[in-house]
Design goal:
With 515 residues, the protein is α+β, with helices and mostly antiparallel strands. The chain contains 12 helices and 25 strands. Strands 4, 5, 7, 8, 9, 10, 11, 12, 13, 14, 15, 16 and 17 form a 13-stranded antiparallel beta sheet that branches. The chain has a two-stranded antiparallel ribbon with strand order 1-2. The protein is elongated, with a radius of gyration of 25 Å. 45% of the residues are buried.
Length: 515
């Protein structure tokens, strides 16, 4: 049994590597940059969370991740509509099924095969249902082509996990509520969906049957659409919005006027090739190019532009804002991206990086406290991880020539985030006794062995993380000192520069430990 297992794993790994090193060729037998991208790379996680095979256009509001945990998962939860968070939080699901006299479910778990995924498209075969699914998307809208293979009644369920859903003459509208566990802010994800083929019966799903009710509120409410038994194909297109159902419809009609899924896929491929071709590499092997272009593809997954016809919903103050001609970006978990992604954009996407930095400043203005964000998401700033590396992002952009933003305002937001907010990880509270200790002694204190936590700013699970907080914050203070010098705050420059080197006094070269 052990030998068989090893051979099976070896075969899987071999196929995976073969797929990654042999990109699909275009119709003209010419390999383009997007053909090197392998969205499956990194999809198996041994410790934390894997990467996901995300379908999206560069920095687009609409992202789709198949509803499965990782590459090896053999079941999938419905067909995704929109992923609202980098780590996979999704809104709505679509479930096609066929059968005569069956009890309908709001969500189906599918076994699947023949999956092909690219940055701009997704094809899959739902083997137990004998249904072929093909998908393409634009920036704020998507389209499914669903092919059935029998002569039984066909159904499509649209499930709402938490919110409101409605059907009117075959059109499905509604919203789902997405919450921020740290700030408790909420954002509504609005949906407008229609099918090319006319449904013969529509209504809210109730006890496995399609009821005559057309609207429902609450958790796991579902609209069911029934089609003729002879129906072989149902095309479903939809728009999403964080503003309103009407805006979701406008987003759809602006981007996908008809039901030509192939044209949507073609446009998506063109957009990705244009973006990836900004960096051309020579030499190396196919595997080298796969790693390179897949990595570049990952840098465009976040943050996302949430401007919709010049407006956007800000979860940072709970209102709809005018973007005044500058696109607004969020869902940039800065602790993850400040080391490499932001510096790369300073070289390859200067205008985009400027828009992102300006978005950070606007977030600070919109929040209750004028602090640089830490983990800006669709539902607000979750203040995750430790330190505030938005400071480093601001300095890096400005020193590389991206100066078209208010540096003095950015400095005030950065300074507030370091000096007024607690340094305790995963907390949005104001500074407390641990922060005073850090200010007095130059390091963040740990607990003694067996000592219970009593400080309210400390997250119950994440704890103090004293070494990470100390090292991360002194780096941020060094960056803050450089910004202070740039804006003429000489006293602040000297103060934060001295603080940033205090931790060196704690290092014992003989033991290799900080004390």
């Amino acid at each position: 049994k052990m030998k068989n297992t090893i051979l099976t794993l070896a075969a899987i790994i071999g196929l995976f590597l073969f797929a990654s090193s042999n990109p699909a060729k275009t119709e003209k037998d010419k390999i383009e940059p997007v053909d090197y991208v392998n969205p499956y790379m990194g999809n198996i996680s041994h410790i934390l969370v894997p990467t996901f095979p995300t379908v999206h256009l560069p920095n687009s509001m609409l992202r789709v991740i198949p509803g499965k945990r990782e590459y090896t998962t053999d079941k999938m939860n419905g067909l995704p509509v929109v992923t609202t968070s980098h780590r996979g939080s999704s809104a709505f699901d679509i479930s096609p099924v066929s059968g005569d006299g069956i009890e309908l479910l709001p969500l189906y778990k599918y076994s699947y095969d023949l999956e092909k995924i690219t940055p701009y498209s997704w094809d899959i075969y739902l083997d137990e249902e004998n249904i072929e699914v093909s998908y393409g998307l634009s920036h704020q809208s998507g389209i499914y082509s669903i092919k059935f293979d029998d002569s039984e009644p066909k159904y499509i369920m649209i499930n709402n996990r938490n919110g409101k859903i409605k059907t009117d003459n075959g059109v499905v509208t509604g919203y789902q509520i997405v919450s921020n566990e740290v700030t408790k802010n909420t954002t509504k994800v609005y949906l407008y969906l229609e099918t090319e083929q006319k449904a013969v019966k529509t209504g809210i799903l109730s006890n496995g049957l399609i009821s005559e009710t057309s609207e429902a509120d609450g958790r796991n409410k579902c609209v069911a659409l029934q089609f003729e038994s002879e129906t072989k194909l149902v095309n479903v297109k939809y728009g999403i919005s964080f503003i309103s159902e009407e805006q979701a419809k406008a987003n759809l009609y602006r981007e996908i006027a008809d039901f030509d899924k192939e044209e949507v896929v073609k446009k998506g491929r063109k957009i990705w090739n244009e973006v990836l071709a900004k960096t051309i590499v020579e030499g190396g092997s196919n595997d080298d190019k796969v790693v390179f272009y897949t990595s570049v593809y990952r840098t465009y997954e976040r943050p996302v532009c949430i401007s919709e016809d010049g407006k956007y919903f800000s979860a940072f103050n709970g209102t709809i804002m005018d973007d005044n001609g500058t696109p607004f970006y969020t869902d940039d978990w800065i602790w993850d991206t400040y080391r490499a992604t932001h510096p790369l954009r300073c070289l390859t996407e200067k205008e985009l990086e400027l828009d992102i930095v300006n978005s950070f400043i606007r977030m600070a203005e919109q929040m209750d406290e004028f602090w640089m964000p830490t983990f800006p998401e669709i539902s607000g700033d979750s203040r995750r991880m430790n330190s505030n590396h938005g400071v480093a992002t601001v300095l890096d952009a400005y020193t590389k020539g991206l100066t078209d933003f208010d540096l003095e305002k950015a400095y005030k937001a950065c300074k507030g985030a370091i000096t007024e907010k607690t340094l305790a990880p995963w907390s949005g509270m104001k500074s407390g006794e641990l922060d005073k200790f850090y200010k007095d002694y130059g390091y963040f204190p740990a607990l003694h062995d067996g000592e219970e936590e009593t400080v309210p700013e400390v997250h119950h699970f994440e704890s103090r993380q004293p070494v990470a907080v100390t090292l991360g914050t002194v780096y941020d203070e060094w960056c803050l000192a450089q910004i202070a010098k740039l804006v003429g705050e000489e006293e602040d420059y000297k103060y934060f520069l001295n603080r940033s080197f205090n931790y060196r006094k704690l290092y014992n070269a003989e033991t290799g430990f900080f004390h």
